[in-house]
Amino acid sequence: MSIAKRGRTFHLRRRVPRRYRGVEPRETVWISLHTDSEMLARSKADRAWSQMIEAWEARLAGNSEDAEVRYEAARDLARARGFRYLDAGSVAKLPVEDVVERVEAIPALANQPDPVEAAALLGTVPEPRITVTKALQLYWTLAREKTFGKSEDQLRRWEAPRKKAVKNFVAVVGNKEIANITRDDMLDFRQHWLDRIEAGEVTANSANKDLIHLGDVLKTVNTMKRLGLELPLGELSFKEGEKLTRPPFSEDWIRTRLLAPGALDGLNGQARALLLGMINTGYRPSEGAALTADTIRLDCDVPHISIEPEGRQLKSHYARRVIPLTGVSLEALKQYPEGFPRYRNRATLSAVVNKFLRANGLLETPRHSMYSLRHAFEDRMLAAGIDDRIRRDLFGHRLDRERYGKGASLEHVAELVARIAF
User: Fold this and answer.
1) Which run of H or E residues covers position 321?
2) What GO biological process term is on the record, naming one (predicted)?
3) Which of 186, 290, 311, 318 is most buried, by the most CB atoms less than 10 A from its CB?
4) Distances (CA, A) of 225 to 58, 120, 128, 222, 228
C-alpha cells in the first residue's frame, strides 16, 4: 500500500486485485484521501481501500443473473458510494442538485458511464419479485436465529418439513410470487389436503403441520423483508383427532422379554446400551445418543448422566437436567463411558432399535416402540408414588405450578429410582 501526494492532496495508490479485473479495467487505482495531512491520510487509507473492495464486490454481484442478488448488489454499491438506494421514480423526485450529485458520482471511462454503477445510483435495478421457492431460499437466512445450537442432524430434521411444505404447495398451486397468492390459492391447497385426509392417506395432524410450516416461511419472509403483504393464511387448519400416544411396556414384558438372557444379543453394542440405559432413566433416544464422556458421570458418589445442550439444541430449557443411573442402566453405561459416537448427531438410533425389536418379537404390541420405555419409566414412578415435581424434573417437563427451591437432591432421587429400577 502506497500513499503519495498528488497536487495538494494525499492519495492511496494500489494495484487492482486479479479478482476484480472484470469490473475494473485499470491496473492501478489512485484513491483520494481528501486531506493534505500525511498522518491523517495514513489513518484513512485502510478504510478507503475497504470501501473500494466493497464497491468492487457489489459490482461483481451486480452482474449476477439472480434478480435478488442484483438488487442487493445495487443497494450495497449505492451505500459504498455514499448514497441510499432509491428506485428511479424516487430519484426523479429528488432536488436537482441531489440528482446531479448522483450522476457525477458515476465512474466514467472513455466518457462512458459505468452501467452497473449508473443503475445503482439512479435506481434502475428493479426490486426482485419473490416466488414461493425463492421465499424458502431467503427463509434459511432470515430465520437463522431458530437454528442456533442445533446439531447437523437437528438442522436437517428442522429443514425437511419446511422444504416439503413448499414443494407440496408448488405442486398444487404453482410457484407463484408470494405477493400474488390469493385466498383461492390457499383454499385450493387446503382442499388438496382434505381430499387426502378423506382418502385415508394422511391425518389432519399431518395436514396442519404442512400448513403451519408453509405459513411460517411466508410470514417470516414477509416480515423480515418488510414487504407489508396481507397474506391469506387464516382459518385453514383442520380439526385434529385424538392424538395417539405410544403405550408403555409392562413391567412383566421388560423383565421377562427385553431383559431375558440373550434377548438383545443381536443388537449392536452401542444401541443395546442405549436401550438399557433408557429403562431406568426415561431419557429421550436423542438425549441418550448425545451423551459424552463429560456428561456420563460414573466416578461420583451418585453415578448420573447430565442432559445438556452440548453440540445440539435441547427440546426446551426444562430438558436440561441430571438423572441418576441405577440397575441395568448403570451397568450399560459403564460399558460406554465415552458415549455413543455411532449415533451421536444422527437420527438412526430409534429406527435401528425398533427394527430389531420388531424382527425378534420383542414389541409387546405393534404400537410399541423404543420410546415406550420412556412411558414405562413414567408409569413405574407414578405407581411408586414419586412426587410430581421429581417426575417432571427427571423427564425434563414443565411443571404446571411455580418451581420453588432447588428440588430434591440427586441422592434422594437416586434412592427413589433405585426402588423401581430393573
Assistant:
1) strand 321-324
2) DNA recombination
3) 290
4) 20, 19, 12, 6, 9
Provide the pLDDT for residue 110: 67
CA angle 387/258/247 to nearest 5° reads 50
Burial tier of 140 (Cβ tally within 10 Å: 0-12, 13-18, 19+)? middle
Where is 5: in which H helix or E strand?
A: strand 2-6
The CA distances from residue 65 to 78, 126, 174, in Å, are 19, 13, 22
∠ Cα 422 347 290 (to 5°): 60
Highest mean predicted confidence (pLDDT) among 2-16, 180-194, 321-335? 321-335
pLDDT in tens, 154-210: 888 889 999 999 999 998 888 888 999 999 888 888 888 887 787 777 888 888 999
Place of cell 437437528: 154
Rg of the chain taking only CA atoms, in angstroms: 31
75 neighbors 85 (Cβ within 8 angstroms)? yes
25-29, 355-359, 382-386, 404-408: the lowest-pLDDT one: 404-408
pLDDT in tens, 230-259: 999 988 888 876 555 778 999 999 999 999
Q: Determine the Cα–Cα distance for residues 187 and 184; give it in Å rounded to an integer.
A: 5
What's the Cα-to-Cα distance from 8 to each of 28, 47, 180, rounded to whole Å? 20, 21, 58
Residue 181 half-sphere exposure toward CB, CA atoms < 13 A: 29
In three-state secondary structure terms, 220 is helix
Mean confidence (pLDDT) of the chain: 85
Cell of 245: 400416544
**Total-model pTM:** 0.54
For 233, the grid coordinates are 393464511
Positions of E strands within 70-139? 108-109, 112-113
